[in-house]
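Changelog note: in this version the structure field was regenerated for every chain. One regenerated record is shown below for reference.
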Amino acid sequence: MWNAFEKVCHTRKRKEADAVSVTQEREVLTTLLDDVAKLHEVAETLPAGDERAQALESVAERWLASAPGMRPSIAAVLLGLSEPTVRAWAKRGILRVRSSKPRLLLDPASVQEIRQLVSELRLAGQTRDLLDEVYNRLADEQQLADPDLAESLAQMHRGEYIVRRQPTG
């Protein structure tokens, strides 16, 4: 699958070839991310713990890991953002960088993750301060993945806590 893509990306001898290759690169990566999203959708319809769902997720992860780095201009189109915004998000760590030299290339898995998040936020009507909302959502997900926090929340739900009040007067 990637042999044809690599030929497109590495045959840039003229400006016209570069323009065509960027267009083809965008088409290939858009198809890849759309296919990965479909795999995730199908996996979510299967029962929790189903081996088929795990297999679909594994295939999606392998496809993303084997994909070449993504240009910020392509990520901008996929995310519906400006290229300067994409570069700023990469600089802040919102989007993972695959390589920075000789040019900036982003991790397609990171772009896919943020694409899904941006889509959810837009569907919920959030269009202003998108960076802050994406950052907050990612921070929340990271904190909720912390096993200590998960245990503390479970204890709270079971009523295993003590309320401490400041002495008055």
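Spot check on this record: The domain at 69-158 is CATH 1.10.1660 (Multidrug-efflux Transporter Regulator; Chain: A; Domain 2). The chain has two domains: 1-68, 69-158.
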